[in-house]
Records
---
Amino acid sequence: MIVDVNVNLSRWPFRRLPHDETSRLVKKLQQCGVSQAWAGSFDGVLHRDIADVNRRLSEDCRRHGDGLLLPVGSVNPSLPDWEEDVRRCAEDHRMKVIRLHPNYHGYGFDSDLCDQLLAEAQRFRLIVQVALKMEDVRTNHPLMVVPTVDATPLAALVKRHPNVPLIVMNNYGSVRGDAAAQLAEAGNVYFENSHAEQVGALEKLTKDVPLERLLFGSHFPFFNLEASLFKFRESALGGAITEAIQHKNAEELLGDR
Amino acid sequence: MDRRFFLEAATVASASSLLTSRQLLAELAPTNGDDIWDLHCHFSGVVGETPADRVEKIVEYADRMAIHRLIFFMGWPWSTAPKPDEFRRQNDQVLDALSKWGHRIFGFAYLNGHHPEESLAEIERCVAEGPMIGVKLWVARKCSEEALDPIIKRCGELQAAIYQHTWLKTQGNGPGESTPMDLAILAARHPNVPIICGHTGGDWTRGIRAVRAAKNVSIGIGGSEPTAGFVEMAVRELGAERVIYGSDAGGRSFSSQLAKVYGAEISEAGRRQILGGNLRRMLTPILRSKGVNV
């Protein structure tokens, strides 16, 4: 049983991916033992009609996978009336999680918008996911260079919103060792393993971050799903730790939302 | 081997060309005849006083992933433009590791194209007269420059492998950092010498195209994010026989890099070529000349 908190539907704007059709994506997730996938939409990165992105996503998740896909709404607080998008995610689509892309949407963690957004998230009891990046910045399209989100102001932000669960995603060295531990202590912060690198990456991650704050994430279908799966083989974690990361922590986080 | 995860994760196979978790387990099991060779390893990502200490730790992880042979190059700390004394010191670190781990690892000699004479001497010391079987060129000098020709020629004579780092950074490469286009220029001057295009330029969508016409160039797929579709495009455009698995461990995990191959929708025969067959074929002549039975 695996709960994958980092999946996207629809199309990556710059190339086709082998599993970017929802039916094929679902099949692959099932074959690899994923029992629940928290699915956002690639469309949420660049589209400005976010309301329609979330409507389509919600519909796709209902239509495919027999409950496998948990829709994760996109919110862009730089758009007019973004608060209505949050409300629709929570009330109309019954979403439990929203996803942010601060670097693509042009704001930082020190922006007032972030405070407003986390306050809205708390109001609707939403879990907030933050994607620090979507791809290696060295391979960005030359007409669209998007630096990784600066995570430095995140500690202060989560301290101001201790009741909002926040999942740091696609973290390739942006928040390292001690900083990750401090973030986990400062707020209700979680990390997923899609970008954990180095040999024995998960062993190292479990030393840096409290076990209860670690989740399974794949960044599938942009990444090969096997990358996150194999890390459990490469690191000798033991059954209880593996279970906590692969599903129990996510299940508890989702709880009665 | 810890198989529990895959056994727990396994689901009933359905009619599909995709691997199921059970098949993944089987593919990774060392008993099935798979022979994974890793083109690209360093002494990084682990701690240890000596190179051999570090290799011991990296091999522990490699064993869990059923990787049979590993190629190491460069020592520590990193040096992007090493003077001859420095690349000799780093090669001594590799030689030290080889003396204890020669049954599991191979070594490539680290060179600097800005010092062609000293680099040639290092090829003699480490490869012609020593146990190493290839060379590594990093970011000191663009490989398109003709000053590198004597190095390539000598490697060709020895049938030593040539691993040239390449990247195609949107923000711009470093001053001596080669692109796959640079490598294609070099390869055209040495059409009978096999050369490996390290990282496939990072941006593999362009890197694969850049070396497509250079039939003596293979690509190394290690040392980049495990982006889906990489290996499929490489096999489609180059053929599986020109694609070589490597990890860039310990900075990268074996998992993320193996996933590029195991996650790719390619034939089983192609997968085996990429995971070890191609590298073994390339290295067999020089290994035999050194009395190594492969």
---
Amino acid sequence: MAIREIDTALITRTVKQLCIEATTVLNPDVLEAYAQGLAQEVSPQGKDVFKQLIDNARIARQESISLCQDAGMAVVFIEIGQDVHFAGLDLTAAVNEGVRQGYADGFLRPSTLDPISRENYGDNTPAIVHLDMGPGNQVRIHVLPKGFGGENMSRVVLFHPGAGLEGVREFVINRVREAGANPCPPVIVGVGIGGNFEKCALIAKKSLLRPVGQRHPDAVIAKLEQEFLRDINRTGIGPQGLGGRITALAVHIETYPTHIGSLPVAVNLQCHSHRCKSAVL
Amino acid sequence: MDAPVRIQTPLSEHGVMQLKMGDRVLLNGTIFTARDAAHKRLIELIHQGKDLPFDLRGNIIYYVGPAPPKPGMALGSAGPTSSYRMDPYTPALLDRGLKGMIGKGQRGPEVVHSMQTNRAVYFAATGGAGALLSMAIKASQTIAYEDLGPEAIRRLTVVDLPVIVVNDCHGNDLYTIGRRQFEITA
């Protein structure tokens, strides 16, 4: 196949657009999950929260303002077809320029800072960029601006193999229970099982790219997702932790082969304001 | 659920004592913003025996780092951040007359105890509903620590800002009681 050249100026424009869209307009799957949550929730304060979330989504879209003041760090997944050649600014710089322009033009809060001096950079760069390479000559970009209410409540553990699936289940449910109201429930629970220290965290995050509530194609994993969701929604935490039956909108599990000596598990909690937009170039 | 009650700031001790866990409240008047970095500086001033940039007595602090305003708006998206991070600084502020806090998430036992002894109240606003909440903010003025950007201290004028009482000054906690009420065991 012939090599396709893509000017990285297009990457900048696309990332900018995706940052603004993701932070102001929720996807239909998220809005559908709110509608279902409102219908299923039995607690009055929980129902009230769902109504506020639905109103909030409408206001953010109409006024073109940030759904949440925490527009997060911009997590950018790029899947590159190996028959693509990039011209212009280097790819990571092009992504960061897109983030800089998107957060400025979208009136989004700059939240990134130096971890030592804690001085705010003022432009929300750099992004967290994950590159993947595969066949073809297209480029797929996912922008997931992720707030830190959920990030701060996320955890990785490397169990010994004997912990088994029961250990995984207990860890996931307890993580949601201990996080309580902090990650802004109703949450989406991203779970990574397997791999190693960093891989389980990465697949937990990647699981959030799935439409909310879409089951894993493997029936065994899909069943685990349903069981975990049922158990999480028995905790009573409810929307915003005020008490209720809808603590999570969905559980997404991804797996990866692991080592004979370990059972890595990551729980990446995503707030109800699940902001994610994608484009294919 | 009862209809929300409209409350004017600043809060009086009598007013705080009337508020009960689970009450829905529409706040009106002046409130102040502060989050992690501003709290750290306030505590440093207290340790140095210096005056604070605003009088805490009767006032409410909103834990928020707002988004920048679009032209024509007072402030951008402005929902609460997680309150537990402010716990280490909070009792010292309550001892100096702070009467209310707006945030999200459970407070530690020392803060809850201090709220009881100092007669103060903790409200939750809906986390992640920053666009909705920004509609209640009619004016904003940075009064300290402009260098902190979104973490600067701002004086806000709010009209009908929707919040709910999580911790009243009588020791009740909606996060604990609400969860227990809806938990399914066995």
---
Amino acid sequence: MKQLIFLTAFLSFAFAKAQTELPELILRNISGKKVNIQQLSEGTPIVFSFWATWCTPCMRELDAIKEHYSYQQKEFGFEVVAIATDDARTKQRVKTESMGRNWPYEILLDTKNVLIRSLGNPQIPLTLIVKNNKIVYRHSSFTPGAELELFEEFKKHLD
Amino acid sequence: MKKLLFTAAAICCLNISKAQNGNFTGGFESNSQWYQNDPGLDNDGDGIGITAPQDQLRSNNYFKLNYNYGKFTAGAQYEMYQPSPLLGYFPGYADNAIATFFANFRHKKLDVTAGNFYDQFGSGLIYRSWEDHTLGVDNSIRGIRVNYQFTDYLEATGFSGNQRAAFELSEGTVQGVNTELDLGSALNLETSIRVGASYVGRYQPSTSPDPNFPATVNAYSIRSDVFMKALNFGFEYVYKEPDAFILGGTAQNGTYSDGRAFLFTAGYAVPGLGVNAVVRSLENMGFYSDREQQGNAFLQQTINFIPGYTKQSSYAVSNIYVYAPQALLSPAENKAGEIGGQLDVVYTAKKGSLLGGEKGTTFSFNYSNWSGLEASFDLANNTYEASLFSRGERYFEEYSLEVYKKINDRFSVKLTGTQTYYDGIIIEGATFRLNGTAIVGDFLYELEDGKSMRLDLQHLAADADRGNWAAATLEYAFSSSLSIYALDLYNYSETDIHYYSLGGSYTKGRSRIALNFGRQRGGLICVGGVCRFVPENTGFTLNLSTNF
């Protein structure tokens, strides 16, 4: 019981000091090129969507965003980086699924789960809005229609 | 003592954070089950059904805390399994303590970790440390790991330590070296060409008075990955030195064999079409930090990672007969390893085309085929002959086609058809071989204001074991935060048992709570191509998780 009280107290403290930045990290995209994740959000908000080829709601979310992408991109500078957390088993499917589904996003590979682990290893789908490397919005899970909330949220972080 | 340490560490962190401006990351996850007696879950027809286990209320809890300040990161994970771990988990977890901890320093090209670390060389065929709470796997290594980036295109990693075995450490010491060269960058090519070489060794002295098998087992691998604009391919080869032959958990004196593995991947992708193929063969590739843990049912102390390359499905009827890789020697079954592969094709027909219609249509095809190696065993001498590139008996074969179509802005349909051959004798030590045909229709309707409704109807027709199954799921989302579901998986041709389940989940920002009640079908539960056995049970489940 003491432990529980202690954990609760500690948890509330940790929340107050919660991580709001992305770590210094280089990931590869599906063409094998290195991408520095801290540079992606310089001066502009950007959506980080964590997914995997075995995660049905993740695929639904990225399919749903695609429907509105060119309009949102043109009007509001909406930009998505889709980070695949697929491990050795399914990582070769990442390119197959993302290209086969015509996704217009930059696709990065977090094969060793270094990035998602640094965020506390949450469940996916996990959607972040990041600006100047600061996490300004965080949502996990996807239900149809949630992409519209994401577009609205994104607009709040435009200058 | 451990509690004291934990408190001290926590206070220390508090002080640091007051003084300086570092930050915390971490999370808390709790998975609890309250098992119930269930006379209706009666597979063997003796009228008794399922009796709840001795500790009816069980809970697995994980509390992770990392603190980062500039170049330094330190962290620990406290785990509590009270009063014993959930059914199907390694019983050795029945305890509570700080399970893993680490301190990491990163500066420019240097990355040093002391404590528990996770890493992977190549595809993991030679070495992978990872963590999965659903499977009860955490084979992190406690020791020292150093990574150094010599140039933009050349890096090396070295480590040494002991693997985690529940709340203790493995008897065997594991060490490894990995080098990766990015030839594409080094030569400034358009094409990305990466090559790598690894070494991993295990040292475990034996307590046997006259051991006639090696204490040290070394493994070596080479690999390459090439990415062109649309094409990519890669290969990997692993050789493992002779290790003791394990029979019934005991090392057999005087008999040992080496192992090898080969992996080839190829892909082609252009907008609207993606194709990839994987071919892999394995001979005697079980690699454990404690040799006598070879083939243990709880996936403890594995050094390498051998996932099943087959289609992964989220539907109940498609998860009953799932392939589990066969990497170990088994003279009684004439089994020396496996060979096989899979092919994936994803194609999206454009809007306005004949196949695409108004909204476009996505087709996903998967084929997989796995067989044993051609092998001949000399049972008297515990030796065998096998070839890495031969095909023996067929273990598993599957075709599946999925069609996803958005009918209009609100309504979409996904239809899946799967044909499976499954050798239950080899894969799960059962007494049947089976052919099954599964058909699934999945319908999603979006209502106003983020509300939506999903219905799936599933059927599996099988010619052995428990015969035919039908299932349905109804899911309703009130908003992006709150949803409820009801599922029934019904075995109507043999046992007449309904595996029903009801539940809901609520997600807000960084936290999630899910509650459900129902029956769990026993058998292999597979996550990411790795499977563990779970006994049938009935009860309430509560999952809590939060991250910060």
